[in-house]
């Protein structure tokens, strides 16, 4: 009986070590996935060329600082934006609010209706977005 108790204790200890290693690995992977987006403004400016039909003449551009938020069941750095893009050559579409999602410190995609993600953020002027060239 003593041998089987020792074997069970050894098995439990081995299982504990394996689980501890997995949780450490998961947290380091999560940290890598959530690297701070050091160049978030430049990444967003580059992405806006593909996102908007006409990236020129944007008005009322504002940006929030990157913040870790839960989106689609995962925690990611999110940057909230507000801007008024051109609807056509003479009219504006009205102020849009979008969220830029970052993965491994780089832009990944935009979320078009980020009401919960962007609620209560503090915006600062983003003149670089208003100066985009075609």
Keyword list:
6 strands; single chain; 134 residues; alpha+beta
Overview of this protein structure:
This protein has 134 residues and is α+β, with helices and mostly antiparallel strands. The protein folds into two domains: 1-33; 34-130, no CATH class. The chain is 39% helix and 28% strand. It has helices at 2-33, 40-51, 115-118, 127-130, and strands at residues 59-63, 67-71, 74-84, 96-103, 106-111, 124-125. The model is unreliable at 9-25 (pLDDT under 50).
Give the overall pLDDT as a whole number.
85
Q: What is the count of structural domains?
A: 2
Biggest sheet character: 6 strands, antiparallel
Tally of individual helices: 4
Element order: H for helix, E for strand: HHEEEEEHEH
Shape: elongated
Number of strands: 6
Beta content comes to: 25-35%
Separation, N- and C-terminal Cα atoms: 79 Å
Helix content: 25-40%
Low-confidence stretches: 9-25
What would you call the structural class? alpha+beta
Radius of gyration: 23 Å
What does the secondary structure layout of this molecule look like, with pairings?
Layout lengths: L1 H32 L6 H12 L7 E5 L3 E5 L2 E11 L11 E8 L2 E6 L3 H4 L5 E2 L1 H4 L4
Antiparallel strand pairs: 1-3, 1-6, 2-3, 3-4, 4-5
């Amino acid at each position: 009986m003593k041998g089987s108790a020792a074997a069970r204790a050894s098995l439990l200890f081995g299982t504990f070590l394996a689980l501890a290693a997995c949780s450490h690995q998961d947290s380091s992977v999560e940290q890598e996935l959530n690297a701070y987006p050091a160049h978030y403004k430049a990444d967003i400016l580059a992405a806006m060329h593909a996102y908007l039909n006409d990236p020129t003449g944007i008005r009322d551009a504002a940006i929030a600082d990157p913040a870790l938020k839960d989106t689609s069941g995962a925690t990611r750095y999110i940057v909230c934006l507000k801007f008024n893009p051109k609807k056509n050559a003479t009219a504006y579409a009205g102020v849009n609010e979008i969220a830029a999602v970052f993965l491994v410190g780089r832009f990944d995609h935009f979320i078009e209706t980020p009401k919960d993600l962007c609620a209560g953020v503090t915006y600062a002027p983003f003149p670089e977005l208003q100066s985009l060239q075609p």
